[in-house]
Amino acid sequence: MRRKSIIAGAAAVAALAVVAVAAASVTPPPAIKSAGKIVFCSDETYPPEESISAGKAVGSDIDIGTAVAAQMGVKATFPNTTFDSIIAALKAKKCDAIISGMNDTAARRQQVDFVDYLKVGQSIMVKAGNPEHITSLASLSGKSVSVESGTTNRDFLAATSAKLVKAGKKAISIKTFPKDTDAAAALKAGRVDAYFGDSPVAVFYVSKDKAFAVGGSPISPLPIGIAVRKGDPLKAAVQKAINALYANGTMQKIVAKWGMTHAVTLLKK
């Protein structure tokens, strides 16, 4: 029931009008044109970026991926893929690309190529009323914090904990979960003191459930990107498509549709 209460809001958001996209303007690689589609791996447990509503993938990333494909005159599909194995799935050719709120990091660039499309900060989510008085990374010292496994958010928490210990403070007790929705549910159930994730996701949870609140301000905005296999010509086509979505206003409309205007940074005005 806790998971349902977190996800239910996605259905209402999905009912909003679909953002219209301009006609195809980008020539896709021959393999994509022949297939007539781009297959995007996506971990659909991360609203409002991606989640499941009425059996379908919905979210800002789903709209962006669909719009990218439309710019190439093809369709988009989104097989649900666990995040901590999502790069392996791409490299095994189970999909053509990844769109899943993935931070573009130096470590990941050793495995895949990225086309960035937004910058996203991280946020601490707490119980309503903030009973533990958590307002910053430093205030997580000695606290238990839930986070999705396989994410840069988890790595960031570990690095923060190490810094706190070096400064003579207590470590953060990091509790990882395979699904972000489970990490949020752990906070609601009182099994952890706080949750740590991307700002748009935390803002979404808070907007849909009065049990939650945001503690402090967004932290360390980082680029998120569509990942493709190293050397894949799809990268150039995706970059042209992203440029077109900014130029024609589609990116801005998608961000607004999903209530992310104040939770992300656009790469272009």
**So, CATH architecture of the largest domain?**
3-Layer(aba) Sandwich
The CATH first-level class of the largest domain comes to Alpha Beta
Number of domains: 2
Radius of gyration: 18 Å
Shape descriptor reads: elongated
SS content category: alpha/beta
Cα distance, first to last residue? 41 Å
Give me the strand/helix succession: HHEEEHEHEHEEHEHEHEHHE
Q: Profile the largest sheet.
A: 9 strands, mixed
Tally of DSSP helical segments: 10
Strand residue content: 25-35%
CATH topology of the largest domain: D-Maltodextrin-Binding Protein, domain 2
Helical amount: 25-40%
Number of strands: 11
Mean residue pLDDT: 91
What does this structure look like?
The chain has 269 residues and is of the alpha/beta class. It has helices at residues 2-14, 30-35, 60-71, 86-91, 106-109, 152-166, 180-188, 199-208, 234-247, 250-257, and strands at residues 37-41, 51-53, 56-58, 75-77, 97-98, 112-127, 144-148, 173-177, 194-198, 212-229, 264-266. The strands form two sheets. Strands 1, 4, 5, 6, 7, 8, 9, 10 and 11 form a nine-stranded mixed β-sheet that branches. Strands 2-3 form a two-stranded antiparallel sheet. The longest helix is centred in the middle third of the chain and has 15 residues, at 152-166. The model is unreliable at 1-18 (pLDDT under 50).
Brief summary:
The protein has helices at 2-14, 30-35, 60-71, 86-91, 106-109, 152-166, 180-188, 199-208, 234-247, 250-257, and strands at 37-41, 51-53, 56-58, 75-77, 97-98, 112-127, 144-148, 173-177, 194-198, 212-229, 264-266.
